[in-house]
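new request in #modeling-help
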Amino acid sequence: MPIPEDWRSVEPAWCPGCGNFGILRAFTNALRDLGLKPEEMVVVSGIGQAGKFPHYLKCNAFNGLHGRTLPVATGLKLANPELLVMVTTGDGDCYGEGGNHFIHALRRNVGIKLFIHDNQIYGLTKGQASPTSDIGMVTKNQPFGVLIEPLNPLALAIALQCNFVARSFAGDLDHLSDMVKQAIQHPGLTLVDVLQPCVSFNHLNTFKWYQQRVYKLGDDYEPTDQQAAFAKSLEWGDRIPIGVLYRSDRASLEDIHPVLKAGPLIKQETDFRAKMQETLQTLF
Ligand SMILES: Cc1ncc(C[n+]2csc(CCOP(=O)(O)OP(=O)(O)O)c2C)c(N)n1
Ligand code: SF4
Ligand SMILES: [Mg+2]
């Protein structure tokens, strides 16, 4: 499945049939449609199959520690708010090892575009349960089946008034591409949780399993109603909604931070320490 020439890097080393191929294709289609250039952006990832994503893209990339994408992305965006800062991360990386960062990144609302490859499993380490694994799923590490309720990341994000909360499916490229475009264009922290079949280790949530359940939110759905969005985010099982579940327009941290009013840090020529003291004096 070729991706647009401008964005192509080395050949992906994912298993044949992996849902990550659909994400790569839909993501690069979205970048092409938006007329973006590789030098205008940076893609940050952690460890995992999803963490390999920026290796397969021709653009600036930072592949760091497991669960630590959001601190890196926050630093990048605050240092240079003009840069498009995107994070591609796994369900384990973002909601497990990086779970604490996830909560506080939602609170901070720095303008990071966050894409989660949610295969409901730890793929790279060969199939242990992740925070989003369905209850009852049997794995090598959970021989009696997963005994605890999964995390609901969309409900959490809506509760914390994340600026844009969407779900899509790696098996529907047009829908996913549309969600990526909307997420990039919406201000503040934006989140797209992508249902991504892991054909090698998740034998429960397969392409067919998702295809039988996902449905698109209709035009009559109002994503600015937080309570309705919260109720919608609890829907999981026989029917799984995809689309924009919630949208708000909270000011992003880089837009309200006093030091950044003078422009991106990388363009400020004054001594940073003196500038900080000057700003603090005007505040207190
Ligand atoms: C701090 C730390 N803990 C554990 C690991 C081992 N480890 C590497 S990848 C991974 C799971 C990745 O799962 P996920 O983020 O869902 O990505 P996927 O491979 O499923 O895309 C784990 C536990 C690690 N590298 N670092
Ligand atoms: S192990 Fe799963 S997530 Fe990783 S490349 Fe293979 S199919 Fe994809
Ligand atoms: Mg995973």
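bot summary: The first strand starts at residue 41 and ends at 45.
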